[in-house]
Amino acid sequence: MATGKVVWSHPTGNSYQPSYPVSNGKVVVFATYYEKFIVGLDDATGKELWKVPTGDQNMSAAA
Description:
The protein is mainly β.
């Protein structure tokens, strides 16, 4: 964060992320809109740790 340089990114498929991701310093959690998932990524590497289907479009932030 000190340099503002991108260290990793993660594709969201045919979707966009309508709300801010949240992190506890180990896992980044975000919701995708059209893809209908809540996704958990490793905070350090961006590797997908888990993906949970929500069954509908997500309009709010993970908390």
